[in-house]
Amino acid sequence: MTDLNELLSFLPQKAPVGFVKSVLLSDEHISRTVVSFECAPTLSMLSEAGAQTSIFLRLSEEKKAADVPERAMGMLVSVKSKWLQKTTKHTFEVESRYVNNLDSFFVVEFTVYDGDVVIAEGQVAAVLQRNGEQL
Amino acid sequence: MSQSYLTEALYEVIAQSEEEVIILLSDASHKIFKAHFEGMPLLPGFLQIDIVAEVLNKEIEAITSAKFVQKVLPLEQLTYKIAPTKRGVQVKASNAKGELCGDFKLKWSDR
Hints:
heterodimer; A: Thiol Ester Dehydrase, Chain A; globular; B: mainly beta; Thiol Ester Dehydrase, Chain A; 2 helices
């Protein structure tokens, strides 16, 4: 079994933009991470954390069969999100789930938790790219 | 205007009003461009939104929709056009060629 934190090397965003600090869960349907910021985050920063968490969704067998590489980058194309409870904390857990998972395009929902409390949620859509070109 | 740890020295404000904000991005040596991404510097989409909110001292309550249309590179000038809507504001960000880079429908409040 892969050490979940070895997966962190998959994250193309580096500090200070790489918000994911550890990976708690990574499968074909759900990924969950711990994210951290140097200040209380904006809603945009939490949305980016949702997008980064989606990187740890495992490729489906269909995508593997279609030769989509494990390290394909998802370039963000759209976001919607909202605060449910504002916070001054800096560290949270984020869960991402597929809504849609097509060949080179996917949509995920994300939820941001402060303990058991949901503080923000939203949806991001991205296209998979390799070396800056859409797959 | 107070800049965050991510946006410090990332951009210079060229002009600002409630309807329009023009900024010039730093060069590729900025830590954000080194981090996003190594060897392929791009302004992260989330910072397109945070920059205009920061310049206008707004706090974003909801991102009703945000579409990232065009890559934004170091040293680019971005012009944000801000228009009120029934439920908030619409912000369109364009580069110096007039190409739309981002189209954002936001709910925001004064900080």
